Amino acid sequence: MKLYARKLIAAAMAAALFSNATLAAESWASGTLKSVYPLSNGSFVVIFFTSPAACTNANNPRYLLVSAGENGVTAEGVKAMLATSLAAFVAGKQIQLAFDDSTSSCYINRMAIVD
């Protein structure tokens, strides 16, 4: 029975390791925000003065999106990143963020004020 439990735990750990959130192709971008654009569904968009080349959406400048349920982000994570984005925007500070470059939505996963 112990062997079965160990195999079950190993399988669960492997499944967690290869979940959708870990399959995202991660890129990093940093710079000063040109705008922070809240959406009606609770998501929001950030736009840099200089668009990251790895973000492939057709908008000019390119939109990077923070949305609950995408790239491992929770509703609480959206709120925290919105607060971080607005603080950086108001203070004129740079942010650094990680986003999924495997989709044209460029879903952000995490960010920090770096300047």
Could you describe the 3D structure shown?
The protein is an alpha+beta fold and 115 residues long. It is built from 3 helices and 5 strands, in the order ααβββαββ. It has one domain (25-113): OB fold (Dihydrolipoamide Acetyltransferase, E2P), CATH 2.40.50. The chain has helices spanning 2-17, 20-23, 75-91; strands spanning 26-38, 44-48, 64-66, 94-100, 108-113. A hairpin with a 5-residue loop joins strand 1 (26-38) and strand 2 (44-48). Mean pLDDT is 86; it is low at 10-22. Strands 3-2-1-4-5 form a 5-stranded antiparallel sheet, with helices on one face. The longest helix has 17 residues, at 75-91. 32% of the residues lie in helices and 30% in strands.
Summarize this entry quickly.
The protein is an alpha+beta fold and 115 residues long.
Would you spell out the secondary-structure blueprint of this structure?
Blueprint: H1 2-17, H2 20-23, E1 26-38, E2 44-48, E3 64-66, H3 75-91, E4 94-100, E5 108-113
Antiparallel strand pairs: 1-2, 1-4, 2-3, 4-5
What is the name of the CATH topology?
A: OB fold (Dihydrolipoamide Acetyltransferase, E2P)
Q: What low-confidence regions span 5 or more consecutive residues with pLDDT below 50?
A: 10-22
Taken in chain order, the helices and strands follow as HHEEEHEE
In whole angstroms, the N-to-C terminal distance is 55 Å
- Structural class comes to alpha+beta
Q: Radius of gyration in whole Å, from Cα?
A: 17 Å
Side by side, the strands of the main sheet go 3-2-1-4-5
Keyword list:
115 residues, alpha+beta, OB fold (Dihydrolipoamide Acetyltransferase, E2P), five-stranded antiparallel β-sheet, 5 strands, 32% helix
